[in-house]
Write a structure and sequence with these properties.
7-stranded mixed β-sheet, about 40% strand, 10 strands, alpha+beta, 3-stranded antiparallel β-sheet
């Protein structure tokens, strides 16, 4: 981008992930340059998937405690979400198949990437790859619940697609990636035909 120059990066923290401060010059529409300063949190790119069963018209979701939501008004800190995880050096497809197995116990044969998003572009670098994946009962090969070394304590939920959509309206699902995938599934009519 020719409208950005003199970028200076200072690492502020690398306690869990990385928080950086960027000072740079930005050229405004009138041609003048101004100095700007932004902080950027890098937690790594990730992938998320909506597991669905076309025949039974069901979806698999997860529920787990999320401290950032708890300290920002989510009374019990529990979040209902689609399965998701960080890439950690894997391709998005490899990652989401691994995460689906760890979190839900379903071993998926095929997944379909439907979009890639920046969930909080003003302060977080993370790119999130969103997938759909069809599951069936024979694919349940493990218990799920998350990797033992990651202290996730994930509860696996199966509900009808209609119930999941109703949870968006009622506030039972507040997670953006989950809302996006459920609404995408509704828009493309995943259970029709």
């Amino acid at each position: 981008n020719e409208r950005i120059k003199n970028i200076k990066k200072v690492e502020l923290s690398d306690n869990w992930y990385t928080l950086n401060n960027y000072n740079f010059e930005y050229q405004k529409e009138d041609g003048t340059w101004e100095t700007q300063r932004r902080e950027s949190y890098d937690c790594g790119d990730g992938a998320a998937i909506l597991l669905y069963n076309r025949e039974r018209k069901t979806v698999v979701l997860t529920r787990q405690f999320r401290m950032p939501t708890y300290v920002n008004g989510n009374d019990n800190g529990m979040m209902v979400e689609v399965c998701a995880g960080l890439l950690d050096g894997l391709s998005p497809e490899e990652c989401i198949k691994k995460e689906a197995l760890e979190e839900t116990g379903y071993k998926l044969n095929a997944v379909q990437q439907v979009m890639a998003t920046f969930m909080c572009p003003g302060s977080v670098t993370q790119k999130l790859y969103l997938f759909l994946g069809e599951y069936d009962t024979y694919m349940k090969v493990e218990e799920g619940g998350g990797a033992e070394d990651e202290t996730e304590n994930i509860e696996v939920l199966e509900c009808t697609f209609t119930e999941a959509l109703d949870m968006i309206s009622s506030g039972g699902i507040k997670d953006a990636k989950s809302i996006m995938l459920l609404q995408h599934a509704a828009l493309i009519g995943i259970f029709e035909g």
